[in-house]
Design a protein that fits this description.
It is a single chain. With 384 residues, this protein is of the alpha/beta class. It has 11 helices and 10 strands. It is globular.
Amino acid sequence: MSKSRDAFRSDESWERWNTHQTTMVEQEVFGTVLRFVQDPSSEHLGTTVWDASVVLAKWFEKNIRKGDFSRAKVRGKRAIELGAGMGLAGMAFAMVGGDVMLTDTADVLGLLRINYETNLSPAAVRLARGHQHGTWADSAGSVAVAELDWTKPEQVHAPPLKPPYDFVLAADCIYHETLTEHFHRTVMDVTNEKSTVVVCNELRSHSVQGRFMDLFTATHSIKTVPHSKMDDTYQHPNIFIYIMKRKKKQPGAKGGGGGGEEEGEEEGEEEGGGAAATAAAAAGEGRDAAAPETSGRPQAQQEEGRPGGDEATTTGSGNGAEAAGPGVVSEMERSEASEAVKGETGERLAAGDAAAAAAEVGGGGGGGALGNGVTAGGEGAADG
């Protein structure tokens, strides 16, 4: 069942997947159904297809014919996805024509590699080409998988990574303030002034969003994609897409802060400017500007952190564990937080409160903040 954009603006119309209870997620992109395996028993949040990756993948699909993300502009360009998780957004970019390096922490790579082999490996692309001549498969870019932990800067310059990249992609990676600092440093390490950074994120915490904007407005120009320019079905009021470019350094300037803004503005893009600007953008489209501190992914998961180069910082714990250092969360804390989230979800499901339970897990692949993720059967067909 397909829903209009307005249908997804009402909480009452959400149809959520309980993706933490399934081992397979299917998502249609460019007229092809991609299949992703995931581990519902894992305490690592990177093993789930999150909503923002679906929104970003469908936005790439919508822009394949014209603009800076068209096939003509993307084909042959080098891209890296940070915190790729199950790899949906990066694979969609490869279907446009980019050569994509999918990266995440070591404990996520097993599932990520399986999904790569299933959907975008050379053998999978050849098979798709045989069945769908004249579609994305004829001009798909290459895909590779590599480890990258944002808390380990030395990995950025270790093979097979070869920065700087033309494009940096990230979906649902901003949910803890300290993690955001690691993310910003990693983005700076893998880009130069010619690189384009695309971040799709769900607004859950205004303080985290504010920190994200503070860090990136100092070094980048930021443009927000209006919801009217996103896919009509696969969007949500609290999920935003940001397009960022490094500010050009002024003569005599020191450090990476840079000076003037990039000239020009893509059609249909709005200038970013902090958490307030994000809220104002939502309000301007008739949305709730005062998003709750947790929308979709629960607070326990925010503080816990999701593998994606992404251990959240913890200064202490209620169970007597020693305080962790910057960018570190203990295995015990990770396990306890994850089990608490899943336990609460199970209780709500047992009580018949499916909507509340789905909101708690905030899953992806058409779940969480989005709708039911039913394949569109060729919606937004690929460029011939």
